[in-house]
Amino acid sequence: MFKNNLLTTILQLIASLVFMVLALAISRTPQVEAFFYGSPLIPYVLVGLVILVYYYMGKLLKRDMGLVGLLLSGVLPLGLALFWGLVAFLGLGRDFFTGPVGASLWRLPYDIFVFPAQYASHLLGFKGSRDLILVQALIPPGLMILSNLVAWIRFQSRKMRRRKERQDV
Question: What Å distances lie between residue 71 and 27, 131, 150, CA to CA?
């Protein structure tokens, strides 16, 4: 369980780095920015990309544990995201919801940790709120756990089928 928690946290930080670079590359020139953010379809494609990245990162997690261990493999990243969100909220108060990403040192660790979810919610046009902090903290590890859970269920069904075939022979 600890390995999956640590791996989920590391994968979340890698995804944040990748999407920060992508957002920076898009915003470098006004023409590219207008193309990506001006189109009605492309922001949804980028949100789908965020979802796919987290879903396929979940396939990298270990499946050789029980169901409870599998479901608890997102506790560390969720706890860190909520902790940094709380620190930022206590430090900035209501300004936490209005400032841009990385505008304050109070908010920077939270922004780094949940940037892909923030980016997706910004592309979808959601305004900042306390509920959004919780959702942004829940979605990344939730998608990774869902992906790993689907793979675990398939693995267990194949394992049971093999046992049944051995017993029938």
Answer: 37, 22, 11
